[in-house]
Amino acid sequence: MFTVDHYIGSINANLETQSDLLVRNLKNIFSYNFSSDIDLLDFSAFIEPTRFELSITMFSMDKEGNEVFDEGNDPTFFGGSEETLPAVEYHQMNDSQLDDFFEFYEQNEETLVPYEQKVFTEWFRQCWEKAGGTSLKLPSYFIFHEDYKSYDLKNNKWVDDEEKWS
């Protein structure tokens, strides 16, 4: 009933419908006058697998891994976090199929998780580039919330988080 290809194809199709929104929000973020205290931008993906939802928040960070906040000293500079993508559905499923799907998912998790991460990362990278991210001066990363590695959007490669902060 369920296949890896069908599930991944569904994710691709659902994400594609959100591309214009993400590109628009990224363009808005790229227009900010970032505080000089910011060393990098972390675009963190939050996945809610039981509801098939994805949201992305941009965090402005220093090299110590701390979020940089606008302390109100100079309103012309940005510091803090920004919702980049509100919670959107990345897969649709009838409630009557959920139990069967989650059984399929559990049996195929080792295959599915890397595919999911690749699809989410590639989609975000494409939107980031379309929005003009390559011209952004700050190093920028895409990360799955509470993961130990980040995707370096400037160099198109995965890096260990310790490398990102060094």
Overall SS class: alpha+beta
How many H/I helices? 5
The neighbouring-strand order within the major sheet is: 3-2-1-4-5-6
Q: State Rg.
A: 17 Å
Helix content: 25-40%
What is the residue-mean pLDDT, rounded to a whole number?
92
Gross geometry: elongated
DSSP, total strands: 6
Task: Work out the count of structural domains.
Answer: 1
Q: Tell me about the biggest sheet?
A: 6 strands, mixed
Tell me what portion of residues adopts beta-strand conformation. Answer: 15-25%
What is the element string, with H for helices and E for strands? HHEEEHHEEEH
Uncertain runs: none
Distance N terminus to C terminus? Answer: 47 Å
Describe this entry's structure for a reader:
With 166 residues, the protein is an alpha+beta fold. The chain has one domain (4-165). It has five helices and six strands, in the order H-H-E-E-E-H-H-E-E-E-H. It has helices at residues 4-16, 19-30, 98-107, 109-130, 161-165; strands at residues 40-48, 53-61, 81-89, 140-144, 149-152, 157-160. Strands 3-2-1-4-5-6 form a six-stranded mixed β-sheet. A hairpin with a 4-residue loop joins strand 5 (149-152) and strand 6 (157-160). Helix 1 runs parallel beside helix 4 (109-130) and helix 2 (19-30) packs across helix 4. The mean pLDDT is 92.
